[in-house]
C-alpha cells in the first residue's frame, strides 16, 4: 500500500488563532504541526438501531465489498466536484485552477470546458462543487459553487460542447451569494435532490457562532429553487435554511427512499454522518458527535477525525459510501431506513491517499476522486485520479 506523508506547508499558530483548526478541521487533516489530537485511533461507531417509521425497510448486509476496477483518468490538479453527464462523460472541477474539465471515461481523455470567472482560490476555498441542472439534456446548464473575493456563491453557466475547448462555458449567472468565506470551512457541495431543488452544504468559515444563528448562511444545509430562491416548504419562513448547527458540510446524498444524508467534519473528536431532518439542529459548536442534549440531532455514525475527515458521500447498494481525506479510506455505512444497520466498514486504507469525492455510477459502481494535489497530501505519480469501483 502506498502511504503518503502529509507535508507541513502552513503555519500552525496562525491558522489555529484565526480559525480554531485541528487535525480534523476543514478538508480533513491540517499539515503536520497543526493541533493534532492527543488521543489517536478512535474507532468508527454507529448509532444503535431502534424501532422507527423505517423499521419495515430492509437492512443492508453488515458486510459489503469495494474493488477498484480501473483508473479512469490521471493527472488532475486539485479535483473537487464531479458531475456525470448524460452521454457518459464526467465533468470535474479544479479547486485551485478554477476550471471545469470533461473526462472521457472510456479513454481518460481530458477536454477543458473553460475557466469559471471570479474564482478566488485560497486555503480550502476555490472552485468546489458542481452539479447539472435537472433539465440538463434540454438546457445544458451547469451549476458551480465557488469562493470569490468576498464570499462563497453559486452560479450557473451554459455548456456548449460544440465550441472549441476552453471556450465551452457561457458567462456565469449568479443565482445565490453571501455565503461566508474563510481560509477554512467553506463547505462547497451542491446537489439537486429528488425534488429537483438545489441543496447546498456550507461551512461556518471558522466562526463557530454562525452555525447556531439561523439568520446566517454559514454552517447550514440550504435548500433553493434552481433560480436561487428559498425553496417552497422550507422549515423556516422565507429562509433558504434547511438544517443548521453544522460545522462544515461537504457530503450530500439521498437513499432510494429520498432520505437526505450529509457528511460533516468534526474538530478534535468526532466526524459525522447525519440523516437530515428539515429544521434539525445538529449541535455545532455546542455538541460534536453524539450528545445527551435532546435538542440536537445525533449522527447516524461517527468517527475519530484521524480515521475520516469526510468530504463526499454517495448512496449505492443499500449503503452510504463516504470519502475520507485524512483517513485515506472509503467508508461504507450499511443502512436500515435512516439508521445504521451495522458498524461502518472501511476499504482502500492508504492505497490511494486522500479521497475527496464519491459519486454513484449505477449498476453497483462508484466514481471515486482522489485529493493529493490539494496542498495537504503527498502526490504520487499520476495523481490526482478518478477511479471506478465495483461495490456491494
Automatic annotation (TrEMBL):
Residue ranges of domain Glucose/Sorbosone dehydrogenase in the record: 76-376
Annotated signal sequence range: 1-23
Region (Disordered): 23-66
Keyword Signal found: yes
Biased composition (Low complexity): 37-62
Keyword terms of this UniProt record: Signal
Keyword Signal on entry: yes
Record's protein name: Oxidoreductase
Organism: Streptomyces griseoviridis
Lineage: Bacteria, Bacillati, Actinomycetota, Actinomycetes, Kitasatosporales
Amino acid at each position: 500500500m502506498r502511504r503518503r506523508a502529509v507535508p507541513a506547508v502552513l503555519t500552525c499558530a496562525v491558522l489555529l488563532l484565526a480559525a480554531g483548526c485541528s487535525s480534523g478541521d476543514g478538508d480533513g487533516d491540517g499539515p503536520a504541526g497543526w493541533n493534532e489530537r492527543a488521543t489517536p485511533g478512535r474507532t468508527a461507531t454507529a448509532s444503535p438501531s431502534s424501532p422507527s417509521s423505517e423499521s419495515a425497510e430492509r437492512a443492508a448486509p453488515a458486510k459489503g465489498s469495494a474493488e477498484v476496477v480501473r483508473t479512469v483518468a490521471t493527472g488532475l490538479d486539485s479535483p473537487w466536484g464531479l458531475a456525470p453527464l448524460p452521454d457518459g462523460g464526467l465533468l470535474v472541477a479544479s479547486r485551485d485552477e478554477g476550471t471545469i474539465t470533461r473526462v472521457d471515461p472510456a479513454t481518460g481523455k481530458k477536454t477543458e470546458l473553460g475557466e469559471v470567472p471570479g474564482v478566488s482560490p485560497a486555503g480550502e476555498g476555490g472552485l468546489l462543487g458542481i452539479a447539472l441542472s435537472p433539465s440538463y439534456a434540454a438546457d445544458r446548464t451547469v451549476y458551480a459553487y465557488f469562493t470569490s473575493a468576498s464570499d462563497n456563491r453559486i452560479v450557473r453557466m451554459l455548456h456548449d460542447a460544440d465550441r472549441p475547448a476552453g471556450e465551452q462555458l457561457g458567462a456565469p449567472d449568479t443565482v445565490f451569494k453571501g455565503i461566508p468565506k474563510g481560509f477554512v470551512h467553506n463547505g462547497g457541495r451542491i446537489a439537486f435532490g429528488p425534488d429537483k431543488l438545489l441543496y447546498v452544504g456550507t461551512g461556518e468559515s471558522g466562526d463557530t457562532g454562525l452555525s447556531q444563528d439561523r439568520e446566517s448562511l454559514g454552517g447550514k444545509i440550504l435548500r433553493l429553487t434552481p433560480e436561487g430562491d428559498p425553496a417552497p416548504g422550507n422549515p423556516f419562513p422565507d429562509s433558504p435554511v434547511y438544517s443548521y448547527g453544522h460545522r462544515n458540510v461537504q457530503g450530500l446524498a439521498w437513499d432510494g427512499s429520498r432520505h437526505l444524508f450529509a457528511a460533516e467534519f468534526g474538530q478534535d473528536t468526532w466526524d459525522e454522518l447525519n440523516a437530515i431532518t428539515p429544521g434539525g439542529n445538529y449541535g455545532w459548536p455546542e455538541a460534536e458527535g453524539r450528545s445527551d442534549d435532546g435538542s440536537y440531532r445525533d449522527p447516524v455514525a461517527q468517527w475519530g477525525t484521524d480515521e475520516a475527515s469526510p468530504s463526499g458521500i454517495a448512496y449505492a447498494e443499500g449503503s452510504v459510501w463516504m470519502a475520507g481525506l485524512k483517513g485515506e479510506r472509503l467508508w461504507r455505512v450499511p443502512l436500515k431506513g435512516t439508521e445504521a444497520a451495522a458498524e461502518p466498514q472501511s476499504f482502500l486504507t492508504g492505497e490511494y491517499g486522500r479521497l475527496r469525492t464519491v459519486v454513484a455510477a449505477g449498476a453497483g459502481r462508484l466514481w471515486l476522486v482522489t485529493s493529493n494535489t490539494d496542498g495537504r497530501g503527498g502526490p504520487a505519480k499520476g495523481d490526482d485520479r478518478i477511479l471506478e469501483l465495483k461495490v456491494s
